[in-house]
Structure formats: C-alpha cells, structure tokens
Design a protein that fits this description.
By secondary structure, the protein is mostly helical. The protein is built from eight helices and two strands; from the N terminus they run αααββααααα. It has a two-stranded antiparallel ribbon with strand order 1-2. A hairpin with a 4-residue loop joins strand 1 (113-116) and strand 2. The model has no long low-confidence stretch (mean pLDDT 79).
Length: 259
C-alpha cells in the first residue's frame, strides 16, 4: 500500500504552487496570453503544463509552511515577478492603443467608441486596427516565444527565494514613458496632416462665413485621416517592429536582474 506523509505532500505542493504563481502572473499580463478571448481554463492548463516542464530544471525550493506568513510573502513575491515581466511587454500595446486614440480624435471619430470585451474598456476602431496589426507583427517576430523564454530565464536569474524580487520599480516606470512618447510618434504623420486640415478649414470659415463648417468639416477630416492612415500603414511597419523588439529587450532585462 502506498502512503504519503504530510511533509512529502507539502513538498510537492510547494514545488508546484510557487513556480505556477509566477507563470500565471505572466499569462495574466503578457500580450496574446492574456487575451480574454482565450478561456480561463485554457490559460490555467497552459500554465500548469509549462510549470511542469520548468520544475525539473529548478534548484531545491525553500521549505515553508504554505499557510504561514513566509509562505504568503513568497506567493506574493512570485506573483509580482510574473506580473512585472508580462507588464513590460504590455506597455508596447498600450502605446499603440494611445496612437490609435490620438488619430481617432483628430479624425473626429473620438465619439465612435465601443466596448472592447478583451480589454473591458472603451476603444476606437483605429485603435483596434493598429492593435491587430501590432499583434500580427508580434507573432511574426516570435514574440510569444520570447515571453516564454524570458519567463524561463527568470527562474535562473531570480530563483524562488526570500531574498527579494530584484526588480527595480523605477526602471519599469521609466519604460512606461513609451506609452506617451512612442504613441505620439506613431500617430505623428496622421496628427500633423489633420492639424493642417483643421487649420485650412478654420481659414476657409473665416474667409467664407456662409459655409457650414460642421457640414463639410467632418467629411473632409475623416477622408484626409483615412487617406493618410492608409498611406502611412506601410511606413508604420518598421517602427512597430522596433517598438516590439525594444519591449522584448526590456522584458528580458527585467527577467535578467539578479537579486
């Protein structure tokens, strides 16, 4: 008859629970993996399989009572590390969404927002278009594999110990600047063209007050915005590739910080 002691059972649970917490933290925030179109049980199953693959490569884990204060702190620590790795890559997609929002506001489509079930927030059509384009580029660059690689690397550079996460919050905050700076750079061609268009419409209204600005302004700005967006989409390919590569590099840097 096979019997299991409580110590052996706790060792098995610890060897699975703490690595699984870090893996699920990455899955909860990283692009593609955190998409709400993927059922939660699929995400959990993928995280469990990935954890079972990683466990044999890990050194012996510290032994704490699961329901003790040390066990709770260890659980929170692993969750923070996983969230930080996935969040570093999520900022790239946030920058692209900001770019789409700026273009939509200039075109007059700021009111044409709808509920996005994936992000559980309001989104515009231009933002969704750029997000889909970025997602395809991300997959073409094997970004999903890079996320898994950074996750596995983090268990070597930041092992499961009580010596701190080794993650600098300041570096993550500084990396968050791309949401505004690079988002504006992506939207700059369309925003510039729409600004010139609005200035021309303003001058036209002053010279010919009888013209109905609301009647001709919206179709003109909408048409100019769509034309500029169509022309600049091909030019956005290289900046988006560079932006995604920078996100991958930063994610690897976050995972490579030793405690």
């Amino acid at each position: 008859m096979i019997s299991f002691s409580s110590e052996l059972l706790q060792t098995w649970i610890i060897s699975l629970l703490w690595p699984l917490t870090r893996v699920l933290g990455v899955i909860a925030t990283a692009p593609i993996f955190s998409d709400r179109a993927i059922p939660n049980h699929i995400k959990l199953g993928f995280g469990l399989v990935l954890t079972l693959i990683i466990i044999p490569t890990l050194p012996p884990l510290p032994q704490f009572e699961i329901f003790s204060l040390q066990g709770l702190l260890m659980l929170v620590q692993q969750l923070v590390i996983g969230l930080a790795i996935g969040f570093s890559m999520r900022l790239v997609f946030a920058a692209v969404e900001i770019a789409g929002l700026l273009i939509s506001m200039g075109m007059g489509l700021g009111f044409a927002t709808f509920y996005d079930p994936h992000s559980q927030g309001q989104s515009t059509a231009i933002s969704q278009l750029l997000m889909l384009l970025t997602m395809l580029i991300f997959l073409s660059l094997d970004g999903h594999l890079m996320v898994v690689s950074a996750l596995v690397q983090s268990f070597v550079t930041m092992p499961v110990t009580m010596q701190g996460t080794g993650i600098s919050p300041l570096k993550i905050v500084q990396w968050g600047e791309i949401i505004f700076s690079l988002g504006l750079l992506l939207a700059l061609p369309a925003v510039t063209a729409l600004l010139i268009t609005n200035m021309a419409l303003g001058i036209l209204t002053r010279t010919a007050p009888q013209l109905n600005l609301f009647g001709i302004g919206f179709p003109v700005t909408l048409s100019i915005g769509l034309i500029v967006l169509a022309v600049s989409l091909q030019g956005m390919l290289q900046p988006l590739q560079h932006l995604i590569q920078e996100g991958i590099n930063h994610m690897q840097q976050v995972a490579a910080i030793t405690p």
